[in-house]
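Quick one, probably user error.
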């Protein structure tokens, strides 16, 4: 099984991520037209509970597996890699079965007592089979990522997205005659089918790729890192002792990471509950509050996070790459990887933030069939860069075994967000925009705290010229797009005018980045096919 470099692995995940995000917008465009904003709201209200349960099961275990496997493979110990995989599977699957049972028995209580809309019950029950399935898939993805082979994860995620879209829309349409609650549950059942197919794809690739690799694996004697005298002085421990040692280290690494991600997951859960109750206090009816929350979480935020596919790919690739460099005490490589990740996250995210701010109305009209959500998107777009930069910073803290620091930063941001939602969303003059202000404040605060932590941890010197150049390029791009859209009549159809203006803005931004040095020809040579084309 061929190992990829940091950039190659990132590009593979980026390609899959772009395909998945683009595919993911098919149901986000069609689903609101099928079940309406209220149906989307029911779907979104149940989803945070699923995120919390999955985080408990898989929050830190896949990352710990990726880190431990990367270290084992780097030292030529493939047998230990497989022991790590099997130990992680046993732990994660056991937790998955337990929490699936717990969720089924608690579905009625959650729907009727905690949430404000009892119709969420059907969606909640529909999502429970996914818990154990996601637990298994996450472990295999962590294993492949640890071996720095991102192809299995990319292929399975794309296949899962395609199947999920088909069944999500089909089931929601089939169940719509029975009511919105059943239609939302049908959409969740479609997601479950997609997860099953994604898991089967990972298992298939493990059997046909890793098993072949096992037959041609590196024997301990062939490992140059371990000399024969060392092997004699330090005999191999028994299998049970090895498994126990792996289990202990797995727990030691995963628990802080899981705790950190649980803060984010619980924050998301509390956000959904408190936002709904705060909107009720502001005098907004339950159905209207559910629709507003569905518009924010099901339409605006997914659109805002679409450009973050690169930063997410960078974060996944950073963990094994930084772990290997840290094991070698290679600080220059760590600095190089961080500068690459931060610059790429900023440069690629900035033009999309400008497009979402300038063209919020045509974007929401084209995507969702109405412009009611446009003010929300325009309000959040300028701060999107903080979200894009946050992912690689958090990945760096986790790879350098500082998940506790990431946990504290996330916890501080979560507390501030919840307090702001309580204080603002319950006021009639703010309503749903109070929740938006809280989300913006959270993204800025957590990103800054992560950045300070990374700088102190690895003595990273910040390149202030990069964000300044990026901001200047954004301003020039925004001005150019706005002028072309409003003052240069290129096409009669609004969507064609929008596409041409946005395309011209992207070309202008790309040119500025080349002239200013934000993007170099050397960077472009890393992109597949570009070097051959050039």
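Nope, works fine. Designed sequence:
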């Amino acid at each position: 099984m061929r190992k990829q470099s940091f950039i190659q692995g990132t590009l593979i995940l980026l390609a899959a991520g772009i395909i998945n995000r683009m595919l993911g917008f098919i149901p986000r465009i069609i689903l609101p037209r099928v079940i309406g904003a209220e149906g989307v709201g029911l779907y979104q209200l149940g989803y945070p509970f699923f995120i919390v349960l999955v985080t408990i099961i898989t929050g830190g275990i896949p990352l710990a597996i990726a880190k431990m496997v990367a270290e084992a493979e780097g030292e030529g110990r493939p047998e230990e890699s497989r022991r790590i995989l099997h130990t992680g599977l046993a732990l994660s699957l056991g937790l998955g079965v337990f929490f699936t049972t717990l969720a089924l028995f608690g579905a009625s209580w959650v729907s009727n007592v905690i949430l404000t809309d009892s119709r969420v019950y059907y969606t909640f029950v529909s999502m429970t089979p996914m818990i154990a399935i996601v637990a298994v898939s996450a472990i295999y993805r962590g294993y492949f990522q640890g071996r720095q082979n991102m192809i299995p994860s990319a292929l399975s995620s794309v296949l899962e997205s395609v199947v999920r879209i088909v069944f999500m829309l089909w089931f929601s349409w089939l169940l719509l005659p029975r009511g919105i609650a059943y239609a939302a549950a049908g959409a969740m059942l479609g997601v479950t089918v997609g997860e099953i197919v994604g898991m089967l794809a990972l298992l298939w690739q493990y059997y046909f790729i890793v098993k072949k690799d096992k037959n041609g694996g590196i024997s301990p004697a062939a490992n140059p890192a371990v000399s024969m005298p060392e092997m004699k002085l330090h005999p191999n421990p028994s299998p049970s002792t090895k498994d126990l040692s792996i289990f202990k280290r797995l727990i030691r690494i995963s628990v802080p990471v899981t705790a950190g991600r649980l803060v984010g997951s619980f924050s998301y859960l509390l956000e959904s509950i408190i936002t709904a109750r705060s909107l009720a206090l502001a005098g907004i009816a339950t159905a209207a509050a559910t629709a507003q929350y569905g518009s924010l979480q099901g339409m605006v935020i997914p659109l805002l996070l679409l450009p973050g596919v690169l930063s997410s790919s960078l974060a996944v690739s950073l963990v094994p790459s930084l772990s290997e460099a840290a094991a070698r005490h290679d600080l220059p490589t760590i600095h190089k990887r961080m500068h690459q990740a931060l610059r790429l996250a900023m440069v690629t995210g900035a033009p999309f933030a400008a497009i979402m701010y300038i063209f919020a109305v045509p974007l929401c009209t084209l995507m969702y069939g109405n412009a009611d959500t446009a003010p929300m998107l325009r309000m959040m777009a300028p701060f999107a860069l903080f979200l894009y930069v946050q992912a690689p910073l958090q990945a760096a803290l986790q790879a350098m075994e500082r998940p506790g620091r990431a946990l504290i930063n996330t916890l501080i941001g979560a507390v501030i967000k919840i307090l702001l939602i309580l204080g603002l969303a319950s006021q009639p003059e703010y309503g749903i925009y109070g929740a938006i202000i809280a989300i913006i404040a959270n993204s800025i605060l957590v990103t800054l705290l992560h950045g300070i932590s990374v700088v102190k941890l690895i003595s990273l010197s910040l390149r202030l010229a990069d964000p300044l150049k990026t901001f200047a390029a954004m301003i020039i791009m925004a001005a150019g797009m706005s002028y072309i859209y409003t003052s240069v009549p290129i096409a009669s159809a609004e969507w064609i005018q929008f596409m041409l203006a946005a395309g011209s803005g992207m070309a202008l931004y790309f040119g500025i980045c080349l002239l200013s040095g934000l993007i170099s020809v050397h960077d472009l040579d890393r992109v597949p096919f570009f070097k051959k084309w050039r």
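The radius of gyration is 24 Å.
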